[in-house]
């Protein structure tokens, strides 16, 4: 089909095209006139994912930022956010919405506030722009209501985000405190077992994980070559220093602990053992200072101490294991208690990590319906529909509208055209090959 044939068909079916165009434009005009307008107001929130936590100093990993943004967008439509918005908009006292609620299906068992909150959720759209800016858009048939709804959504969203953060921190803090209490009891039990074993064996473990007898043996071995008087004084200096340290610890711990506390009882048992060692060393020192027998007495004491250390090596190792267990329990308790205290402080923070951006302005133009777009689209649809119907009707009922329509194939061609003189026609009719309309004559 050539362009001339198409134009001839279009001209012949022009009335159908005009009717289709008029019907579509008229329908679009009725829609844009009667349909309820829709206004949109947008509130923006800055999500500073690079901001460090004021307590832990951590921040959100940028590789997981997408998951964080998705969770916040879902939170915007949660009932904890939309419920307060219903209260702020005053929908609970709206008679029209009350009647609509009463006319709801019988299968809908939601209460009035949740039913309205679902409508708020349906009117919300969210988007993340500029990497860290969350846009919350609220749609309404009233521009003022759209503005108030967007502002209420932003405030409620930030409050819900902070409440969620505080609630999670408080829950974790309670769990850590519970674990810390259990670890404290385990540490006390380990301390009690260690103190009982020290009483049973008479071995006292020093702060450097060395028992008293091994320390005394090292001191005696180093003092064997020292003159008698110096040796007598130095032999008991280590034990006396240990006794002074234990007395200082007892005085310090007594400020916070009672006399029956396991740690206090352990210190008193250590003091009794050290005091016994000091008295033995004083006796040995007095014997060493008596004259020529001092060196022999010191050597004899050294041999006795060496035999004692060798005989109780397995007991010392067992005591070291008990001390390691005590240290492990105490260290776990301190770390867990510190984490619990940190989370408790985090639960009391008022910083949600979200910052409102700008003011929410009432929209001046509705986003729907877009009258120019709808009317223009209806016009294009009408023209296209008219052209389609014209071609369809022409294909179903072909007519000869020009010489080109007679050339059915290469073997059947038009060999001539008989024309009759006729007056001049219009420019368009001459282009299309159409003559003037045949004048009607009255019947004879």
What percent of residues are in strands? 5-15%
Q: Can you summarize the main beta sheet?
A: 4 strands, antiparallel
Integer tally of domains: 3
Radius of gyration: 49 Å
| Class computed from helices, strands and strand pairing | alpha+beta
Give the proportion of residues in helices: 55-70%
Give the overall silhouette.
elongated
Average pLDDT confidence is 78
Separation of the first and last Cα atoms: 43 Å
Helical region count? 15
Strand order of the largest sheet: 2-3-1-4
Unreliable sequence segments: 227-235, 437-444
The total beta strand count reads 4
One letter per element, helices H and strands E, the order comes to HHEHHHHEEHHHHHHHEHH
Q: Can you describe this structure?
A:
The chain is of the alpha+beta class and about 450 residues long. It folds into 3 domains: about 5-30 and about 370-430, no CATH class; about 35-175 and about 350-355, no CATH class; about 185-345, no CATH class. About 65% of the residues lie in helices and about 5% in strands. The chain has helices spanning about 5-10, 15-35, 65-75, 80-90, 95-100, 110-120, 145-200, 210-225, 230-235, 235-255, 260-290, 295-310, 315-345, 370-395, 425-430; strands at about 40-45, 125-130, 135-140, 355. Strands 2-3-1-4 form a 4-stranded antiparallel beta sheet. β2 and β3 form a beta hairpin. α2 (about 15-35) packs antiparallel against α14, α4 (about 80-90) packs across α6 and α4 (about 80-90) crosses α7. It is elongated, with a radius of gyration of 49 Å. The two termini are about 45 Å apart.
